Amino acid sequence: MAKKLPKVDVVIVGVGWAGGIIAAELTKAGLNCVGLERGKERNTEDYYMVHDELRYALRFEMFQDLSKETITFRPNEKIRALPMRSYGSFLLGDGLGGAGVHWNGMTFRFLPYDFEIKSKTIERYGKNKIPAGMTIQDWGITYDELEPYFDKFEKMAGIGGEPNPLGGKRSSGYPTAPMKASPVMNMFIDATKKLNYHPYMMPSANLSESYTNPDGITRAACQYCGYCERFGCEYGAKADPVVTVIPVAKKTGKFEIRTHSNVRRILHKDNKATGVMYIDLTTGEEIEQPADIVVVTSYVFNNARLLLTSKIGKPYDPATGKGVIGKNYAYQVEAAAAVGFFEEKEFNLYSGAGSMAVTLDDFNGDNFDHTDLKFIHGANIAYSQSGSRPIANNTVPPGTPGWGQEFKTASLKYFNRNVTVWAEGSCMPYQHHFLDLDTTYKDSFGDPLMRITFDFEERDKHMVKFMGDKCGDILKEMGADKVVVYNEQGPYEITNYQSTHNTGGVIMGASPDTSAVNSYLQMWDMENVFVVGASAFAHNSGYNPTGTVGALAYRAADGIVKYSKSGGILV
User: Which residues form the Glucose-methanol-choline oxidoreductase C-terminal domain (predicted)?
Assistant: First the structure.
């Protein structure tokens, strides 16, 4: 028998970026909220002087224990899915702040094209440009409608950068200056301008200067130590939920965080959620938390899984294309890159920051003509100097022996003489790419694991060839003595790290026939349930997802406040 607690206004499942933003905005509006986080408490003090690459980057200190809960994967339905037992393709965050603690800080706005991708593609190229099986759709919201929320997220996080010359219109500039530009970054800028491209400093959540945000949160500037991705920031310079939005929610006195609380079900009756059931992982006790509103803000896979195990929403059927929960899973296409080796020039590549970078969007979205190309959308092309930590980085020219004196000589020579230009590619959804519950494997509580069915498509191979060649052209213009181009996309390989940019499964749209949530991320099928995160993306753009997740979370918060007063499906 579950222990039943007193009812609250709102229960929030997962306290990362989305959950933290929701908590801050709702408590400021006077709502009493409980945040349930299955991981442990985290504070900035946890990372004082802990630049331990082995512990954090290679032994995955900050990530989910895959022996207790993981995902299963298969490239298609003909093959049995197997569990991911060691980290590879992506990293599943664990603990207060979630992936918002261990991210790099690259903070983009998706392009106007992204939000109306189907309509704009057909308008320019005709409906035959969209291949059979590709299930792109408009998001039910435009860039202009979302722009104020992008602005709000950037000011809260203290994002620094330069406006994207090929991006959407902005209501204001970035609240802080761009990060410092290294010599290599300046070489990239000069070379790409000569190629008639439009480079700009990458938007960064690593503060370039001390900053106080509109909520009164003050943070210090980045030290360029190079320990961002897979690490917490001991300075608080990298924006994360623990040092930005969560303190704001706590200060109101209306937010209670319960860590080590694993939510297993959303409880519901007569088509309305009544609360959630969770396990206190410290005692094993089953607890029921009643609430007027349930906000699901965990990671992509957990959002979809919780709805499926709770029997909320219609599960997606890949055979018919009907149903919505699990639909339009997408990843990121990141095989396109080029490495340049310099014989005479030497750089300080050890110093850096997660989003110390320069980038361009000439080949992203629909910023270039796709008429004669066998793909739509594109990629963001960049050079980023995130800090070449010593264990994981040892780039040598092809043909170098893997051991011995020649290997050692090349390793020492090229450690600070290699430059990688890479493309962060978009990923389009297909009818046969989806999320569902595994029929064989279960977690430690007996609930089925989330199953991914996904592989790279012909469209991805064509895009990687195109983008890889562009990366090589840039390095040649930068003066590299030897350029190695990577422009081949093989089958999806879950054992090799690529990015943690998983999207879809609980997508947004204008109709309950084709989407799970509306533009406020409110479920069509259960009006007092909101599902917030990259699970709402109907495809993945050529960018990191966090800026768009943040903007959608702020819009969802507005919607939840409205719903708390009047009820009903929001329009």
Answer: 436-553
